[in-house]
Amino acid sequence: xxxxxxxxxxxxxxxxxxxxxxxxxxxxxxxxxxxxxxxxxxxxxxxxxxxxxxxxxxxxxxxxxxxxxxxxxxxxxxxxxxxxxxxxxxxxxxxxxxxxxxxxxxxxxxxxxxxxxxxxxxxxxxxxxxxxxxxxxxxxxxxxxxxxxxxxxxxxxxxxxxxxxxxxxxxxxxxxxxxxxxxxxxxxxxxxxxxxxxxxxxxxxxxxxxxxxxxxxxxxxxxxxxxxxxxxxxxxxxxxxxxxxxxxxxxxxxxxxxxxxxxxxxxxxxxxxxxxxxxxxxxxxxxxxxxxxxxxxxxxxxxxxxxxxxxxxxxxxxxxxxxxxxxxxxxxxxxxxxxxxxx
Length: 343
What we know:
Structural class: alpha/beta
Distance between the termini: 37 Å
Shape: globular
Strand order of the largest sheet: 3-2-1-4-5-6-11
Helix content: 40-55%
Order of helices and strands: EHEHEHEHHEHEEHEEEHEEHEHH
């Protein structure tokens, strides 16, 4: 299949291909790469015009039509993915596209495995096949959910996996097939074991943004109550723009490797609720309910990541505090309401 690929303003600009470009991480990564002079190509399940609108809405003034081109593709469509990789001939590929909602993975396990396991195989095999024409460095978005219910914390890159949901199982395959291709074919691929990372761009389906959006709405009299699943859980939460910087740093190393990207802090969800509702002058205990119907069949244990390998080898460390992250998300949702742009 012949694809039309635009030529960036600077023909010697490095080329990066991002799957899932319209997601939270994809938008921040696009901004980062444009700042560094890359030509950016991206894939999305949406048709290109809809994907462009979504991306432009998030990155605003960073949009540069001369250095961005979008393609429509299903992650598990190996032929389509290969055609895109062959047409773009990227220097770097960031495989961020996935069905990444843990709760939804219980409801749609086949779709989850199709996108996350087969989708990763499609991308890494395409990278392998064009290696003689254009060597590609690949980032594979992995997850702390791989550890599931760990016996130790904080977890390191050597902590055994114990996936506890279909999403994590599909990502375990993606991790292993990446290591397999690295060792068998010499593909330059890094697994970034990223712990939960949030921002004002987080999809409202995820609990953190669901909370901050509800806090803004309740304070404004637009919503009365918030229903959540289990409240007695917690996570290692970081700031998404800092995490995409870690992705880029991985691909600048002489040799590929796998890295944990985390804060080495664990916070209960109740603390997230405390900060979010205090930001708007409310007490979450007055308006939040725990609904058993929203609870998952199984939960993870204490996921808390040791990022010392990333610090020592990549020079990366988290900078935004937990409180700053939550307050920034609440402030953004308050501002959206003020502008009449509530999601």
